Amino acid sequence: MPEQSRKSGAPINWFALAPTVAYTDGIGVMKRAPHPHAAVLFYDFVLSDGLTLLAELNHVISHRRNEPYLRKFDLKFIELDAVLADYDRWTRIFEDTIYGRGGGFSVPTASH
What we know:
It contains six helices and two strands.
């Protein structure tokens, strides 16, 4: 996490290539959670004190004060449904790229 390291005094700088690929996190409570009251308490924590904790760790949290910072980037969000629909293939492409395995591969273009 280069920005967090930079803010902590590390001698680095960074920039994002456009478009900047991003993903979002989500939270919810299962319909038939075995401990629904505990699940709701955790949900409440994540959306209150948990956000404060994440912000202290220099994570970008869902808050309007972060909007000007995020506007600096040409953000393109990963479509989670598309990734999950072809998860094994995307995992193979990722691992082949990171570990230098395999030859070429084709990345499909978005149909919308």
